[in-house]
Design a protein that fits this description.
The protein is an alpha/beta fold. Among the domains are: 208 residues, Glycoside hydrolase family 3 C-terminal domain (Rossmann fold, 3-Layer(aba) Sandwich), CATH 3.40.50.1700; 111 residues, Immunoglobulin-like. Strand 4, helix 7 and strand 5 form a beta-alpha-beta unit. Helix 6 packs antiparallel against helix 15. It is globular, with a radius of gyration of 26 Å. The two termini are 43 Å apart. Bound molecules: 1-deoxynojirimycin. 1-deoxynojirimycin (NOJ) binds next to loops. The site of 1-deoxynojirimycin (NOJ) has 6 residues, from loops.
């Protein structure tokens, strides 16, 4: 979008320091449902907060609001802002549009499991379009933090453990959101996913080697894809609060990567520079963040940036305010800051959005196990649908959604009934109360989060009934996992076990002898050691969104073949964490001493794993080299009698050099749809950008002359490989 820079110059020339600081301030605007309680930690007076924000609008001292999604409310607040600002500067409205606004897509980790930039981009374009239609200009997404510790609840918001996949997913999301009309804000720069012990907001200590090689690439990709915003992270990074890091926001982001947009702090992260024991007071907190390069403060309580006039030079205020005004100009807000409420309704109801959501849920499910080809199921006989999550609309959507429509949400039970209810007998029993939540979520304050059990739900009797229903059926489909509020922000866990009596229910169902399919609803790997031995079919459906149940039925009955692949290594037990596929060989890898004596050293399911109803053969791998670029080609055949999609993955290993390099690193992938009996030759190129890495000894990027191993296949354990050497 083009804009007139003259307009921004003119505004800046006429604005007072307080008005400039106002442009740098973003306020939460909470209208909580009646009776809702706020987190005491937010320190908010629910009644007073909207009044205080509206007073700031009246003084012309607010640049942005977040958490408003109703178009008429957005227009009302925008009118207040434009009237209150002596220069008529409109507000930017931001919101957490994480995996959809009204049409809810699978959670981000699920979208990443599609390994499909096309559907990821399409999904976020829908989200962006819906958001912009209601008047939201900017989303606090994508979260591109690498996560290697599934105890950390926010693993669900990212693309998993791998920087190459993470970078591709980040760029696709940025393209999608921004094509939908909203500014994308990759977050939380940087290293937030490496919280100590997986405890949210806890400190992070990462070597330069990990930052440059693993944690930064998705951010860089997001910036290169044109992201207009970046958000800071809450925690200390190597002893310095990330939100006050000049190195991150000025040296790396702007000077090195050429980022041209604006940076926002995470909520209250500037104020909390005092809590960290870093700044002595709010004025110093504001001054240090703004000079580090943080343009806008996201404030829940009193903003630290209100103290900026007098605490920093007007030149600093100008530089930062310019970024915010430029963003508004690029969005066209100086021409028309209001939203068309009728069009908003139409856009939110667009059936094409639901079609995309169903397709996304189909492509993101991962078939973890399918012994004896139990799946796909026939649409005949009797199917028992069991488990507390099978018919829970709220859980089907997953966390980080607020503007959803529960009535249109398709649960697994709904989906199965719609697909096979005319030809098969479908029975249902939850077995376990859905209201059984052991964890009070910070999001409960928004209401609509906790489904209730019917009056008089008798837990013991329901458990027994579920087992009876299973025994009477030809096949049992059991939906288990974590309730959606058990994962996400501030929802870390010290265990990966199925919460409550779910494993017991699964064991009782399997003991009936009825062939059993386990559907896992989750955003992190769970401890499925028992299931992986005793349950013939396991399909990871994540939190699949608005159309989730319909997509799951498509997969269960074989209308579509599963094609998702794990974006993380699935450990056997919490004690193995952290466990990644791209570790180095290190010392005596085959020595028993390097293992746990009480557990295997292998994962339950490897990174990149995911089965299919197709049967893929990989053969005839060739490598050609020219000018330092290796071209690897392989033939992939689908030997099954049905069409199926496969994600072909390429892994690279450098045998020797100026550092020890990982045993394997993902360096290419392609999703193919192969008709029955067909084959396709897939080609990958490995250039300098794939071989280059950040080296701790020379503290720079290096390219080693070395011999390289390469493998191509359907997971990180691919066996078909070859070798090539680079001389210089
Ligand atoms: C805090 C979270 O860390 C961040 O990801 C989110 O965008 C903001 N709150 C706003 O809700």
């Amino acid at each position: 979008m083009t804009y007139e820079s003259g307009k921004v110059d003119e505004l800046l020339a006429g604005m007072s320091p307080a008005e400039k600081a106002g442009q740098l301030t973003q306020y939460f605007y909470f209208r909580l449902p009646p009776g809702a309680e706020t987190e005491p930690a937010l320190g908010l007076d629910v009644a007073e907060q909207p009044r205080a924000v509206e007073a700031a609008l009246g003084r012309g001292e607010a640049g942005s609001l977040l958490f408003v999604t109703d178009p008429s409310e957005i227009n009302r607040l925008q009118r207040l802002a434009v009237a209150g600002n002596p220069h008529g500067v409109p507000l930017l409205f931001g919101f957490d549009v994480i995996h959809g606004l009204r049409t809810i897509f699978p959670v981000p980790i699920a979208m990443a499991a599609s390994w499909d930039p096309e559907i990821i981009e399409r999904g976020q374009a829908v989200a962006g379009r819906e958001a912009r239609a209601v008047g939201i200009h900017w989303t606090f997404a994508p979260m591109v933090d690498i996560a290697r510790d599934p105890r950390w609840g926010r693993i669900i918001e990212g693309a998993g453990e791998d920087p190459f996949l993470g970078a591709a997913v980040a760029a696709a999301q940025v393209r999608g959101f921004q094509s939908g009309g909203v500014i994308a804000g990759p977050k939380h720069f940087g290293g937030y996913g490496a919280a100590l012990g997986g405890r949210d907001y806890d400190e992070v200590n990462l070597s330069d080697h990990e930052l440059w090689n693993t944690y930064f690439p998705p951010f860089r990709a997001a910036v290169e894809a044109g992201a207009g915003n970046v958000m800071t992270a809450y925690m200390d990074l190597n002893g310095i609060p990330a939100t006050a890091s000049h190195w991150l926001f000025t040296e790396v982001l702007r000077e090195l990567w050429g980022f041209d947009g604006f940076v926002v702090s995470d909520a209250n992260a500037v104020r909390n520079l005092v809590t960290h024991g870093y700044a002595r007071d709010l004025a110093e907190a504001g001054a240090r963040a703004v000079t580090a390069g943080v343009d806008m403060e996201m404030a829940i309580g009193d903003p630290a940036y209100a103290h900026l006039p007098g605490a920093v030079s007007e030149e600093v205020l100008d530089t930062r305010a310019r970024k915010v005004l430029e963003a508004k100009a690029r969005l066209g807000l100086f021409d028309d800051p209001y939203v068309d409420e009728d069009r908003a309704r139409e856009t939110l109801a667009d059936p094409a959005h639901r079609v995309a959501a169903r397709e996304a849920a189909r492509r993101s499910a991962v078939l973890l196990r399918n012994e004896g080809g139990l799946l796909p199921l026939a649409k005949s006989g009797s199917v028992a649908v069991l488990g507390p999550l099978a018919d829970s609309r709220r859980d089907t959507l997953g966390p980080w959604v607020f503007d959803f429509d529960l009535d249109e949400t398709v649960t697994v039970l709904d989906g199965i009934r719609d697909a096979a209810g005319n030809t098969a007998t479908i029975t249902y029993a939850p077995g376990i109360p859905v209201g059984q939540r052991t964890f009070p979520s910070m999001f409960d304050m928004f209401g609509r989060n906790a489904p209730a059990d019917p009056e008089g739900f008798d837990a013991e009797a329901e458990f027994a009934r579920a087992v009876e229903v299973a025994a009477a059926a030809d096949v049992a489909v059991v939906v288990l996992g974590e309730w959606q509020n058990m994962i996400g922000e501030a929802a870390s866990r010290s265990s990966l076990e199925l919460p409550g009596r779910q494993l017991e229910l699964l064991q009782a169902v399997v003991a009936t002898g009825t062939p059993t399919v386990l559907l896992v609803m989750n955003g992190r790997p769970l401890d499925l050691r028992w299931a992986a031995e005793h349950v013939p079919a396991i399909l990871d459906i994540w939190y699949p969104g608005t159309q989730g149940g319909a997509a799951v039925a498509d997969l269960l009955f074989g209308d579509v073949s599963p094609s998702g692949k794990l974006p993380f290594t699935w450990p056997r037990t919490v004690g193995q964490i952290p466990m990644i596929y791209s570790h180095t060989v290190s010392h005596e890898p085959d020595n028993q001493a390097r293992r746990y004596w009480d557990e295997e050293s292998t994962p339950l399911f490897p990174f990149g794993h995911g089965l299919s109803y197709g049967r893929f053969a990989y053969r005839d791998l060739t490598i050609e080299q020219a000018d330092g670029v290796a071209t690897v080609a392989v033939e992939v055949a689908n030997e099954a009698e049905r069409e199926a999609a496969e994600v072909v993955q390429l892994y690279l290993h450098q045998r020797h050099g100026t550092a020890s390099r990982p045993v394997r690193e993902l360096k290419g992938f392609q999703r193919l749809v192969l008709p029955a009996g067909s084959s396709h030759r897939v080609e990958f190129t490995i250039g300098e950008e794939h071989r280059r890495y950040w080296n701790a000894a020379v503290r720079d990027w290096v390219l080693d002359a070395a011999t390289f191993d390469v493998w191509v296949g359907g997971s990180s354990t691919a066996e078909l490989g070859g070798t090539f050497s680079i001389d210089k």
